[in-house]
Amino acid sequence: MWKLPQLETRITITGAFDTDITAVFQDSGKKAIPPQGHYGAWVEKLRKIEAFDARHGSIQFFRFAAQGLAENVLFIGLGSLAEATEEKFRSAGGHLWGRLVAEKSKATVVHVESFFDVKNPKPESVRAKLIRAFAEGLILSAYQFKKYKSKAESSASANAKKEESLGPSRITFVTQDKNLKTLLETELSEVQAIGDAVRITRDWSNEPSNFGTPTYFAGEARKLAREYGLKCKVLTEQDAAREKMGLYLGVGQGSEREGRIVVLEYTPKNVKKPKTVALVGKGITFDSGGISIKPALRMEEMKHDMTGAATVLGAILLASKWKIRNRVVAVMAFTENMPSGTAIQPGNVLTARNGKTVEVFNTDAEGRLILGDALDYAQDFKPDAVVDIATLTGAVSIALGKLCCGILGNDDTLIDSMRRAGDANGERMWQLPLFDEYFEDLKSDCADMKNSANDSNGGTIRAAIFLKQFIRKGTPWVHLDIAATGYNVSHLSYFPKKGASGAYVRTLAKFVADF
Q: Which H or E element spans position 354?
């Protein structure tokens, strides 16, 4: 299996390496500002002939430059020095990785001092955060899913092993500031953990549904629990029946494959009375729509309908690696939504774990059904806050596009905390209203509620107001609808253009760490 690049810091460099990375900024006149050191003259020449203006995302590569210990030199443009932000650094790291892969770089050195104004340096803690963001862009870009490609297909050469890890296998950040080096060691260690957690989330979401079955994910979760020191419990459909999870079981009853509910627990060591955050993820391993079947166009993407559960998994793994001081419970409800002679039908009535009855108005509104029972189950752990995340509605794509996810809930303080965590990671969200009046459209003639309304207006809000019916009084709750941002996100340089994005793993981990 391919491996992520290793990140390290050093004061000096010994031995040969492949590529030098130097940052270049713009002045107010949109011209490149030469960096300190022996590459400054090169940049000055490029500036004079207007070959490189250091705009954000621009790259200038020189092969066989024979400067210092490196054969090649790469200048990365970061735009205006005065407007430097963590997200711009993260984006620049994403742009850089693609070029390193294209140039077949194998060992890369990043000159940290070139990223800052030596005459007016920022505080070390600020510099460390900016370099951390740059490293995040690199590590998040270093992803590929080639699990099912044959060796002949995945490698043009006979030696496929050399192709398993595209791009540099090691990235060294060099600084002359010993205090900054110490800070960077901590930051880059956390970034390495981010890379591992997001990789697993993307792998799970990208898994084809004939391999990525509920049983498969339950087995993988057990392995990861042992590796990360987590407590793991797996509920079978028989267990779910004993728990009276009628909504969850109803969704899966049309499939030949049995569902599984996976519960992972992280408990911090040496912390008295830690706060508990419950994370609940939708895990529909394939969503055909059921009897209310989906159109054939892009139905293959419905293997990604378990991305909420995959995101929850990545978040608890990252929380464990970071050794956060809060307890985290992750509930992942896996099942399939298939049409068959045993599938639920429009007009059927199901009974939820909390005793409420639901008329199934549309079998393709299945995610909210399994989340209803999963949310009720998660609250048995007496959490101080509950967060659910799901690829829940196509309506959120219409409302917000792919630039952010929708966030709704019953506690504005909790929502604000989640949004701050998202902003810190460049993973934006937009709050939608959750007025009680929206429930009027979900009232049923024969049950306590319907799972969908007669039209698609306000679909994201209606889905959330449905979920609210399963939140107990006094429980702070937030819902994230990532249907638009969970996969095929092309506007960010550090996300894959196709397939799972791994978005919001970092946000959820920071949220539970800061809670």
A: none
